[in-house]
Design brief:
It is a single chain. The protein is mainly beta. Helices cover 4% and strands 42% of the residues. A hairpin with an 8-residue loop joins strand 7 and strand 8 (93-94). The chain is globular.
């Protein structure tokens, strides 16, 4: 994967400084993960944002909408795919904006072997609720399949009661990868709401954050 954005200047250890660091960045995620400077933040192919937590030095990731599987997302009458910018100078990233759907089903996975060990991670779905939100008569159901293969099931709070017109995090669960763990499975996550029979609208999905 190529490197689309570098928010803060970064360079490998034992390398002299340069005004051309963006071009010198490695082009693959596996190479970028070798960077140990805490001020590295990179957007890869408009799909994955990677940074290092300054306190714990843990590797953190944001998986933008392109990494997610959304039911009926190929139907323009149900979902639109607008572009969104984190900051005015950034390259735009794709989000999923709900038009009208009867059922919500979102899922995805990530290679947990790229995460740090010995720190507690939180997995959150990041969404925006529009002013005209309707059809959410039941809470969202979430499933998090952790790197050890165990599952965490949750029922979220009523979406109608959450803040509108701002990005919020819906936590899907927490986990830790012990130092001694040898067999690590993929991290998987699912969010769905299929009980309500009313047409739903007003939800915008930005992505999933895996961070400390």
């Amino acid at each position: 994967m190529s490197c689309g954005i570098l928010r803060k200047r970064a360079k490998p250890k034992n390398n002299s400084s340069s005004s051309n660091n963006i071009r010198r960045l490695p082009r693959k995620l596996e190479e970028i993960l070798q960077y140990e400077e805490p001020d590295v933040e990179v957007l890869l192919d408009e799909q994955i944002r990677y940074w290092i937590d300054t306190k714990t030095k843990a590797k953190c990731f944001f998986l933008y909408a392109k990494n997610l599987h959304v039911l009926w997302s190929e139907e323009s009458s149900k979902w639109s795919l607008p572009q969104y910018k984190e900051h005015p100078s950034d390259q735009p990233v794709q989000v999923y904006e709900m038009e009208t759907v009867l059922s919500l089903a979102v899922g995805g996975s990530f290679d947990a072997g790229k995460l740090s060990r010995g720190v507690e991670y939180k997995v959150s779905l990041v969404v925006l609720l529009k002013k005209f939100l309707s059809g959410w008569e039941f809470p969202l159901q979430t499933i998090l399949v952790k790197p050890d293969g165990t599952e965490e099931h949750q029922s979220t709070e009523d979406l109608m009661e959450k803040p509108k017109r701002k990005w919020i995090k819906i936590q899907l669960g927490t986990f830790m990868i012990p130092q001694e763990m040898e067999s690590i499975t993929n991290l998987e996550f699912y969010v769905h709401e299929r009980k309500g029979r009313k047409l739903k609208m007003g939800l915008v999905i930005k992505g999933v954050e895996v961070s400390v």
